Amino acid sequence: YKEQILDLLEPGSMGLQVREDINRGVYVERLSEPTVSTLAEAFQLLWRGLQNRHIGATHVNERSSRSHAVFTLSVERAQTAAGVTSMRVACVHLVDLAGSERQQGASVDGAAGASPA
User: Fold this and answer.
1) Helix/strand/coil percent split, the chain, to 5
2) Strand ranges (DSSP E) for the chain?
3) What are the b/e assignments for 24-34, b being 16+ CB within 10 Å?
4) What is the pTM of this model?
5) Is residue 24's pLDDT more than 70?
6) What's the confidence (pLDDT) of residue 58?
7) Which residues make Cβ contacts (< 8 Å) with residue 74, sequence separation at least 6?
8) Which of the two residues, 100 and 61, has the higher pLDDT score?
9) What is the CB neighbour count within 10 angstroms for residue 86?
């Protein structure tokens, strides 16, 4: 929001930086990565992040997002066979881009911390 990277699960976080590492690839430094054990826990985190998004009303859309958001779900499964443990990992990235209404004529009015519909 406003060219700042924020952790929607830690609303007080400011000034987060995008970094690149040979092992991790591209990542956001100091971004929270909570571990969950159930689908319900994952949905609770998703909902908590959505509540911290910046939204605003326009003539086109009453609840237009003012910021991009990325929710990444990594699923890990460990399996042991014949004394050897193997790990499978899958990642799903849900990306919501900020409202694409044209600024001109949409009367964009941003609001911070408003909860989604």
Assistant:
1) 10, 40, 50
2) 18-21, 25-28, 55-57, 64-65, 69-81, 84-96, 109-111
3) eeeebeebeee
4) 0.67
5) yes
6) 74
7) 89, 90, 91
8) 61
9) 9
